[in-house]
UniProtKB/TrEMBL annotation:
InterPro entries: Cellulose_synth, Nucleotide-diphossugar_trans, Znf_RING/FYVE/PHD. The keyword 4Fe-4S does not apply. It holds the Pfam family Cellulose_synt. The chain crosses the membrane at residues 285-303, 315-334, 897-920, 932-952, 1030-1049, 1055-1076, 1088-1108. It is found in: Endomembrane system. This is Cellulose synthase-like protein D4. SUPFAM superfamilies: Nucleotide-diphospho-sugar transferases, RING/U-box. Residues 1-45 are annotated as: Disordered. It comes from Xanthoceras sorbifolium. The lineage of its organism: Eukaryota, Viridiplantae, Streptophyta, Embryophyta, Tracheophyta.
Length: 1127
């Protein structure tokens, strides 16, 4: 249990030393006070359950672990580039304590660390995970577990190998430093650690022959230090470059391209760019631009002709049509002009590997020089977002092809649900098998659910003979994993019921013993209980005070502690069902976080959760780059992160704020009825913007530069004050913003000094390598090969404080820093703010899809999704984020693109009117022009041909299919007449009257075939958004029938007007065809409400027609047969 006895003050504190720091002081290692002035008090729980307080000095004990003496390194004296890591037993005990504790805290509450011996019901084996199984402590009456190293082996701080847990070891140190086993003093700092330290780049010396006498291994010289000379003599080892063991014949026996006789210095290799910008072929782009110009000119002449030739017979019809056409021309310009300069890009992954991951004389172990990467996954409700889907996303992240020690995964549970917490713990436990399996057999994709559902031969391109056996075993383990995940709700409920019943029995027993009235009702809270038998600090199944969705403490659990800095290879002796020999078995840092929520605070939904993740990750890992994913978007290409880093680490990469990947979806019906793939936007519009200032940020699948998220302008070496070697050193936060006073850092970022000190570190580590004269703003090679500092309780406690609900008060979080608040579409606004400050973004389309996710294929769900996007666009239009108010740093074509984002929903007002015009024309007998003249037809034909030509050429340079383009046109009209109209109404009411309207589902009609994967496509759920398209379709159908019958029975029929009106009516109905199919459901079943609306509309139109154009009375006598008169 760790407690903070002083609450963080909301008063702004001065920090005179935060700028220009190039150390890791932000981590606060080994300090009794953290940087915010919070004093951390520690306590431990004895075997009797009592908590005994310890001072910080009691924890600052050192003692070397003895190890098994099988691997040694030749030590190089400490230099500024070679700082030895603190690998004492106390540090290991502290890190294990942190990773096994659940930290909670918040506003006006104590930050506590609850030591969890058991996280989930199932057994945990991976040594990085909390609650991992281990040997029992040999101390009498102690049920603690022995401290473990990175491989999971027991750590024995004494030569006698007496097994002792962390708490008992601390007691022994405090009571005199005697080992309870041999009664001899612990010889602190005498023995080498089990894990060799490669921070200096040294390679391990070979282990001795197992058949030889190992007694000499234990012999030391007269000073008590290990005799390296004797070791080298007996093992025939040699010194090589940099006083490290050097392989004589070949480096990398498994690599057919291994380097013979030593290594080549990478500095001698020719400099290669990591990415290239590929222009579109002139044979395609030149005609495309020419057609845009021709259509623009023709539109001007056509609109001029339309204005000059009104229809005197129906001025009202002509006026409505010309207004709509003027707006459509303006909307087309906003959409089309930014597409003038599309481009493609390519990356060179081999060049990235050679530059950052290849062994060299200065880096003999091949330790990666890539910057750190923090991956954010957000979820809010386990009922709407199944935990199994989220767990599969987490597994795909853990198995990604990126240096394990540089990767950190964070899951934000905005609902604070125990179900999500235990599902993530189960995922971390299963990752112990899944991640090494993916590395061993080069599995793609690395989402187990998607992998096992592939309809291809799994043995294709697999060379290992044990693949089939391993796949069969891992499939069986995954099936059991799914059973455990799906059974978690019942398991948590049964467990909670049992513990609550026990508490009731305790209360009832106490009442009987105290003589209380037995008829009095028992008052026991219906709590939700964790696997270790304690209350869950988040949301309970039966909500109560401080345990509800909007009212709970902040929670932070390090599910998987940071891995060792060098590969940890498996061996056949490991207790695993698969043989992972020569496979790296490390797992990346994995953190569960649920920010504090309290009544009365605006938590700003997803944007607030993302900002809390930014702050917490800055304290714990501080990766210079951040990848954010939705819980249903998993990594489909394990090289995706490296593809993005090719742009960030290339020349000029310091000015890139984010890399946006296209969204790809699974589970879409083959015909893509509702344009769910949205390929026209992702492969057309976004690719075109990539040639200007960069694509929009679309909410997921985006790789951010952390420094850009902090609200700074892009670095400009010409304006930054230079000193000696300044370009090679981290600068202070104020160096990038002349208006930012160092003393006012808490006003912008909050009162966490750790957070403020991490900003220049993240900026420095995110720079490209200064390995070329044309890179004026880089970092020297090799500075990121040092291991990260281990976590301690002070650091984690600080991370808990920055996710509290009060932290953002009176700061610029959500206004300038992080994700921007105030809009439903916070993603577009956040990207706009970065572009407005002068940053550029890049669109990265990989050969193999980088990420894949799910999308709603149901009509109603799709309309509500579009409604949410359109509502956000209307909010943007009426806010200060309107592109009309952008700075001069935003390029002209980029400004048009952002203008279109805010304006496109208003097109629905004109589109609704224009869809009614054909029907009104047919019913009234008039057309939008007085007659179908030759000039009108020529203009119409030219505009149509230009549209067809532009569509064909756009299909060519974007790579989309013509059918996808047509599906996009159809759904544009469907959404424009339904969701966009509702968004405009909702936005106008909110701005003008402060009234908020939500469009919710009212009734359902479910399909019958539950086994069909596309069953949801035929699910009909009635919503008010369907009313306008239904009215448009019915009126156009009725108008065609009435006009046709009237034309037939007319003495002198005017077929030209009928054909003109009918043509446009059929054009409207063709666009609404997918909507009609959606209403029919499966097998032509139409909901009753459709017939009700159809009959009501038909009756209304009939009465309206009779009242407007009633038949004239006749005075002729009736004849026998009668006559037919059409009104």
């Amino acid at each position: 249990m760790a407690s903070l006895n002083s609450q963080p003050s909301k008063k702004v504190r001065n920090n005179n030393s935060s700028g220009g720091s190039n150390n890791n002081a932000a981590q606060g290692q080994g300090s009794s006070k953290n940087s915010s002035g919070q004093t951390v008090k520690f306590a431990r729980r004895t075997s009797s359950g009592r908590y005994v307080s310890l001072s910080r000095e009691d924890l600052d004990m050192s003692g070397e672990a003895s190890g098994d003496y099988m691997n040694y390194t030749v030590h190089i004296p400490p230099t500024p580039d070679n700082q030895p890591m603190d690998s004492s037993v106390a540090v290991k005990a502290e890190e294990q304590y942190v990773s096994s504790s659940l930290f909670t805290g918040g506003f006006n509450s104590v930050t506590r660390a609850h030591l969890m011996d058991k996280v989930i019901e199932s057994e945990v084996s991976h040594p990085q995970m909390a609650g991992a199984k281990g040997s029992a402590c040999n101390m009498p009456a102690c049920d603690g577990k022995v401290m473990k190293d990175e491989r999971g082996n027991d750590v024995a701080p004494c030569e006698c190998r007496f097994k002792i847990c962390r708490d008992c070891y601390m007691d022994a140190q405090k009571d005199g430093g005697l080992c309870p086993g041999c009664k001899e003093p612990y010889r602190v700092g005498e023995f080498d650690d089990d894990t060799p330290d490669y921070s200096s780049g040294a390679l391990p010396l070979p282990a001795p022959n197992k058949d030889s006498n190992n007694m000499t291994m234990m012999k030391r010289n007269q000073t008590g230090e290990f005799d390296h000379n004797r070791w080298l003599f007996e093992t025939k080892g040699t010194y090589g470059y940099g006083n490290a063991f050097w392989p004589q014949d070949e480096y990398g026996d498994d690599d057919p391209d291994g380097i013979k006789g030593g290594m080549i210095d990478t500095s001698e290799k020719p400099w290669k760019p990591l990415s290239r910008k590929l222009p579109i072929s002139q044979a395609i782009i030149s005609p495309y631009r020419l057609l845009i110009l021709i259509r623009l000119v023709v539109l001007v002449f056509f609109l001029h002709w339309r204005i000059q030739h009104p229809n005197p017979e129906a001025v009202w019809l002509w006026l409505m049509s010309i207004i709509c056409e003027l707006w459509f021309a303006f909307s087309w310009i906003l959409d089309q002009i930014p597409k003038l300069s599309p481009c493609n890009r390519s990356t060179d992954l081999e060049a990235l590997k050679d530059k950052f991951d290849s062994p060299s004389p200065s880096n003999p172990t091949g330790r990666s020089d890539l910057p750190g990467m923090d991956v954010f996954v957000s979820t809010a409700d386990p009922e709407k977002e199944p935990p199994l889907v989220t767990a599969n996303t987490i597994l795909s992240i853990m198995a990604v092809d990126y240096p394990v020690e540089k990767l950190a995964c964070y899951i934000s549970d905005d609902g604070g649900a125990l179900l999500t917490f235990e599902a993530m713990a189960e995922a971390a436990s299963f990752a112990d098998l899944w991640v090494p399996f993916c590395r061993k057999h080069k599995i793609e994709p690395r989402n187990p659910e998607s992998y096992f559902c592939l309809k291809i031969d799994p043995t294709k391109n697999k060379s290992r003979t044990d693949f089939v056996k391993d796949r069969r075993r891992i499939k069986r383990e995954y099936d059991e994993f799914k059973v455990r995940i799906n059974g978690l709700p019942d398991s948590i409920r049964r467990r909670s019921d049992a513990f609550n019943a026990r508490e009731e029995m305790k209360v009832l027993k106490h009442m009987r013993e105290s003589g209380a009235d037995p008829t009095e009702p028992i008052k026991v809270l219906k709590a939700t209980w964790m696997a270790d038998g304690t209350h869950w600090p988040g949301t309970w199944a039966s909500p109560s005070s401080e345990h509800a969705k909007g009212d709970h403490s902040g929670i932070l659990q390090v599910m998987l502690k940071p891995p060792s800095c060098d590969p940890l290879m498996g061996n056949a002796e490991d207790d695993k069902i698969l043989d992972f020999s020569d496979v790296d078995i490390r797992l990346p840092l994995f953190v569960y976080m649920s920010r504090e929520k309290r009544p009365g605070y605006d938590h700003n939904k997803k944007a607030g959760a993302m900002n809390a993740l930014v702050r917490a990750s800055a304290i714990l890992s501080n990766g210079p780059f951040i990848l954010n994913l939705d819980c249903d978007h998993y990594i489909y290409n394990c090289q995706a992160l490296r593809e993005g880093m090719c742009f960030m680490m290339d020349k000029g990469g310091e000015g890139i704020c984010y890399i946006q990947f296209p969204q790809r979806f699974e589970g879409i019906d083959p015909s893509d009825r509702y344009a769910n793939h949205n390929t026209v936007f992702f492969d057309g519009n976004m690719r075109a913007l990539d040639g200007v200032q960069g694509p929009f940020y679309v909410g997921t699948g985006c790789l951010f530069r952390r420094f850009a998220l902090y609200g700074f302008d892009p670095p400009n070496p010409n304006k930054i004050p230079q000193s000696s070697n300044t370009e090679m050193q981290p600068l202070g936060a104020a160096d990038f913003d002349p208006d930012l006073d160092v003393n006012l850092l808490p006003k912008r970022f909050g009162n966490s000094t750790m957070l403020s000190e991490s900003i220049p570190v993240a900026e420095f580590q995110g720079r490209p390598l200064a390995d070329h004269p044309s890179v004026p703003y880089g970092r020297p090679p090799g500075v990121l090969r040092m291991p990260r500092e281990p976590l301690d309780a002070t650091t984690v406690a600080e991370a808990v404080s920055v996710i509290s609900c009060w932290y953002e008060d009176k700061t610029e979080w959500g206004d300038r820093v992080g994700w921007i608040y105030g809009s439903v579409t916070e993603d577009v606004v956040t990207g706009y703010r970065m572009h407005n400050r002068g940053w550029h973004s890049v669109y990265c389309i990989t050969k193999r899809d980088a990420f894949r996710g799910s999308a709603p294929i149901n009509l109603t769900d799709r309309l509500h999704q579009v409604l949410r996007w359109a509502t956000g666009s209307v909010e943007i239009f009426f806010s200060r984020n309107n592109a009309f108010l952008a700075s001069l740093r935003l390029k002209a074509l980029q400004r048009l693109g952002y203008l279109n984002v805010g304006i496109y929903p208003f097109t629905s007002l004109f589109l609704i009117v224009y869809c009614f015009l054909p029907a009104l024309s047919l019913l009234s007998g008039h057309f939008i022009v007085q007659s179908l003249s030759v000039a009108f037809l020529i203009y119409l034909l030219t505009i149509t041909l230009c549209l067809i030509g532009l569509a064909i050429l756009e299909v060519k340079w974007s790579g989309i299919a013509l059918e996808d383009w047509w599906r996009n046109e159809q759904f544009w009209l469907i959404s424009g007449t339904s969701a966009h109209l509702a968004a405009v109404i909702q936005g106008l009411l909110k701005v003008m009257a402060g009234i908020e309207i939500s469009f919710t589902l009212t009734s359902k009609s479910a399909g019958e075939d539950v086994d069909d994967i596309y069953a949801d496509l035929y699910l009909v759920k009635w919503t008010s958004l369907m009313i306008p398209p239904i009215v448009i379709a019915m009126i156009n159908i009725i108008a065609i029938v009435i006009a046709f019958v009237r034309t037939i029975y007319t003495t002198n029929p005017n077929w030209s007007k009928f054909i003109g009106g009918a043509f446009f009516s059929f054009w409207v109905l063709a666009h609404l065809y997918p909507f009609a199919k959606g209403l029919m459901g499966r097998g032509g079943k139409t909901p009753t409400i459709v017939f009700v609306w159809s009959g009501l509309i038909a009756i209304t139109l009939s009465l309206l027609w009779i009242s407007v154009s009633a038949p004239a009375a006749t005075t002729q006598p009736a004849t026998t047969g009668g006559t037919f008169t059409f009104p």
